[in-house]
Amino acid sequence: MGKNIISQRRGRGSPTYRVRPLKLLPRMGYSRKEGVVVDIVRHTLRRSPIAIVKNQDGTKSYMPAPEGIRVGDNISKFAMPLSAVPVGVKVFAVESIPREGPRFCLSPGSAAVLLSRDGKKIRLKMPSKEEKIFKGDCFAMVGVPAGEGRDEKPFMNAGRKSMLMRSLGRLYPRTSAVNMNAVDHPFGGSGTGKKKPPVARSAPPGAKVGAVAARRTGKKRK
C-alpha cells in the first residue's frame, strides 16, 4: 500500500505540515479620527512592524508602521485620504475600496507614488511601474513601510531558519523534485533526470505537479 505524495499531504493539512498556533494577527484598519501611537510591536506573520494607535474614543487601531514614526506621534500626519496627499509623495497600504478591500504596498520598502489628481480619481504609480486609479476617499499611509533591509542579516544556523519557515507555513528544507524518492514526487526515482511535460488542469491530484496547464514551455525569447 502506497502513501500520498508530499503535495497531497500538505494540502490535506496533516500535523506534520500544519502551522503551529500563534497569537492572532491583528486586523489592519484606518481610524477616521485622530489618534496617538502608543506602541510599535513586531508580529511573526508580518514583515513590517505594527503601530498600535489609541483613538480619541478610547478604541485601538492597528496600522503598518512607516519609517520615522515614534511613540507619541499623531497618526493624522501619516494616515490620510488620497485626496489630501500632495502630488509626488510616496504612499503605502493603500485601500483598494474605501473602508474595506485589500491594501496595496505592504512589503517593507515598497511604496507607490502619487502621479496626478483628476477630480475624485487619483493615479498612482505602483512599485511594479504599473499605474492604477483609486478613489480620492481611499485612505493610505504617507511614507515607506518600515523594516526594509531585514533580509540583509543572515541566518546563523539552520534552526532559526526552520522556525521562521514553520511559523509562515512554508516547507523547509526544500528539496528538488528530481532528487526525491518516487513515493514523494512523480519527478523522483531512479532514471528520472528530467522533469516531465506540463500536465492538464483536469489531472488527478497525484499527477498535478510541475507546470500545471502551462500555456508555453521553454525559455522566453525576445
Describe the structure.
The chain has 222 residues and is mainly beta. The protein has a domain at 35-69 and 78-147: SH3 type barrels (Roll). 8% of the residues lie in helices and 24% in strands. It is built from 2 helices and 11 strands; from the N terminus they run αβββββββββββα. The protein has helices spanning 6-12, 158-167; strands at 35-41, 50-55, 60-64, 79-81, 90-92, 94-97, 100-104, 112-118, 121-125, 131-135, 139-142. It has a 6-stranded antiparallel β-sheet with strand order 4-11-5-8-9-10, with no helix packed on it. The longest helix is centred in the last third of the chain and has 10 residues, at 158-167. The protein is globular, with a radius of gyration of 23 Å.
